[in-house]
Design brief:
With 175 residues, the protein is an alpha+beta fold. The protein has two domains: 55 residues; 97 residues, no CATH class. The chain has four helices and five strands; from the N terminus they run H-H-E-E-H-E-E-E-H. A hairpin with a 7-residue loop joins strand 3 and strand 4.
Length: 175
């Protein structure tokens, strides 16, 4: 994985290339070359690229891996304080717990505004088919995390054990 130190190195090289483009552009403007405005555009692009690499060198890029987490699909996200994921069935209680923790880590961002209580709620659900032609969404669990900080060790995981038992009696679902 690329680290912030790598991005800083890329920023330095991109800065040198931007200065070189700037010098060639200045020379083109002074000598009235026909493609001088193309060089102005290329220099501007290099400046934007350099600024982006500098920003990436400041902010660490960290992905949390929760052991035992299973594949899930994001099916609803209001971008603020609510999200819903779909999980495959059958699923165990420990697998659901790890998957909810993984989703809470994956869906957290500094840009989420949240509600008045500043909490992100992520629900896990599946769809069961009790009878042919009948589909029923079933909430299996929910995790609540704080939106005030990056690392939240106070995750509140709630698993609906009764609904997990209903899932065990039905056919497997696909995500």
């Amino acid at each position: 994985m690329i680290s912030t130190a790598d991005f800083f190195t890329y920023f330095q090289w991109s800065g040198i290339a931007t200065l070189a483009f700037g010098a060639v552009t200045l020379l083109a403007l002074l000598l009235k070359w026909g493609f001088k405005f193309r060089l102005v555009g290329a220099t501007g692009f290099m400046g934007v690229l350099t600024a982006g690499l500098f920003a990436l060198s400041l902010v660490p890029i960290v992905h949390t891996n929760v052991p035992g987490a299973l594949h899930y699909s994001l099916i609803y996200d209001n971008g603020s304080d609510r999200a819903t994921i779909a999980v495959r069935t059958p699923i165990t209680e420990t697998g659901l717990d790890a998957t909810l923790r993984q989703a809470a880590a994956d869906l957290y961002s500094y840009g989420r505004s949240g509600s008045s209580d500043k909490q992100l709620k992520v629900r896990a659900r599946t769809v069961i088919h009790p009878r042919p032609g009948i589909s029923e969404p079933l909430v299996l669990g929910e995790v609540t995390r704080s939106l005030s900080g990056g690392e939240d060790s106070q995750l509140n995981v709630k698993i609906e054990r009764d609904n997990l038992l209903k899932v065990d009696r039905t056919t497997p679902s696909k995500v």
